[in-house]
Amino acid sequence: MADTKKVIFKIHRGETVQGQFASRTEEFEVEYGRSTTVLQALESIKADQDGSLTFRRSCCASICGSCGMVINNRSRLACKTKVRELVDGVADKNLPASDVIEIAPQKNQPVLKDLAGDISNFYEKVDTINPYVQEGKEADKQVNKSSFEQVNMVSNCIMCGCCYSDCTEMAASPEFLGPAALAKAFRFVADPREGHKTERLKELSEKNGIWDCTRCGMCVDACPKDVAPMEAITKLRTRAMEAGVTDNPGAKHAIAFKNDIAKAGMLNEPMLLLKTLGVSGAIGQLGNALHLAKKGKIPSIFPHKVEGVQEVENIFKELDANPIEVETKQEDTGPGAG
Ligand code: SF4
Ligand code: SF4
Ligand code: FES
Predict the structure, then answer these.
(1) What whole-number distance in Å separates Cα of residue 171 and Cα of residue 109?
(2) Ligand 3 centroid to residue 59 C-alpha, Å
(3) Residues 81-139: pLDDT tens digits?
(4) Does residue 112 sit in helix, strand or coil?
(5) Which of these, 61, 67, 140, 147, is most buried using a 10 Å CB contact count?
(6) Which atom from ligand 3 is nearest to the alpha carbon of 58?
(7) In the chain, which stretches have pLDDT less than 70?
């Protein structure tokens, strides 16, 4: 290989032996050139150093979605990630330079062997949102190019699982539907031909759905196809509220939050809890409240306004007069663009 350098790959490996999962890390020295990808480096390790190294790949062109793995602590496609960029760092991509390249299987799913995870849960969750257009009375016969602007962007998803792997809510609540399934759900809610939009929005507003996303943004960073799942979730929330799907803790919390800020410029947290969860739900949080009280962290239940609340009121008046367009088309350069 002309003009090559060497770098160490530290690979997390593991497999089930006699019913017990045993993991280890192993280091391999790899030669790389200007355009060598992480996938090519793994192929060379498998061909020349250890044929038992296990990982998935197919297209080698960021299309099939099978080579998602954790590369230097973030989920990425191995076939789209250049070794040189990881070693040298790229300021524009917020990628620090690194002497060693660490490779691990995707997070939030069990490992089958080495870098290959069990992706059944990921696909089962996508399946639960009924990933197809359904006939029904809300179906619109008028379909034009502009009505597909939103659908195009989420249609670029290649089911690589990178967003699912990096999702912080998924780590805390494994039953959360997750960014890919929710982005896919938006693809059908936004499709003019879909006949059960409101029913979908009701289901998506239940526990483990759109309101459980913490808006951490990790899925947006992780997605190699610019699907921006968090944005799709925000749009689903907006559509659910517009469709009157508000009888759930997530929507109640959002409404109470907005009303508190609009009136006082600050939250009345005890009342926010009551308005979100109702009396019985709030009683269930008494243990937490006592814990906070012991630490002297219970906020006042008596409403008061921040200084200069008039400015906050003016912002809300302006927003009421000129609402922000949440569904602004984002630049769409993926294979579904056009
Ligand atoms: S923004 Fe929401 S869906 Fe995306 S990674 Fe964070 S919690 Fe998960
Ligand atoms: S939304 Fe992006 S990161 Fe998530 S599965 Fe689809 S292509 Fe992969
Ligand atoms: S091998 Fe197909 S996306 Fe990487």
Answers:
(1) 10
(2) 5
(3) 999 999 999 998 889 999 999 999 999 999 999 999 999 999 999 999 999 999 999 99
(4) strand
(5) 67
(6) 1
(7) 1-2, 301, 303, 326, 328-338
Phi, psi of 7 (to 5 degrees): -145, 155
How far is residue 26's CA from residue 56's CA, in Å, rounded to a whole number? 18
Residues 6+ apart with CB under 8 A from 65: 77, 158, 159, 160, 161
- DSSP SS3 for 69: strand
At residue 15, what are phi and psi to the nearest 5 degrees? -160, 165
Residue 31's DSSP bridge partners are 6
Residue type, 11: I
User: Is the shortest distance between the CB of 204 and ligand 2 below 6 Å?
Assistant: no
**Span 198-231, pLDDT tens digits:** 999 999 999 999 999 999 999 999 999 999 999 9
Name which residue sits closest to atom 4 of ligand 1, judged by CA.
Answer: 219
**Is residue 183 in contact with ligand 2, taking CB distance under 6 Å?**
yes
Structural domains of the chain, ranges and CATH numbers in brackets = 5-117 (3.10.20.30), 120-242 (1.10.1060.10), 253-321 (no CATH)
By the 10 Å C-beta count (0-12 exposed, 13-18 middle, 19+ buried), 144 is classed as exposed
Of 124, 229, 238, nearest to 167 by C-alpha is 229
In three-state secondary structure terms, 22 is strand
Q: What is the largest CA-CA distance in the chain?
A: 72
Contact present, 62 and 226 (Cβ < 8 Å)? no
How many angstroms is it from 85 CA to the middle of ligand 3?
18
- Residue 320 in tokens: 């009421």
CA distance 75 to 224: 9
Q: How far apart are alpha carbons 118 and 35 in whole angstroms?
A: 30
Q: Which two tokens stand for residue 117?
A: 């995870």
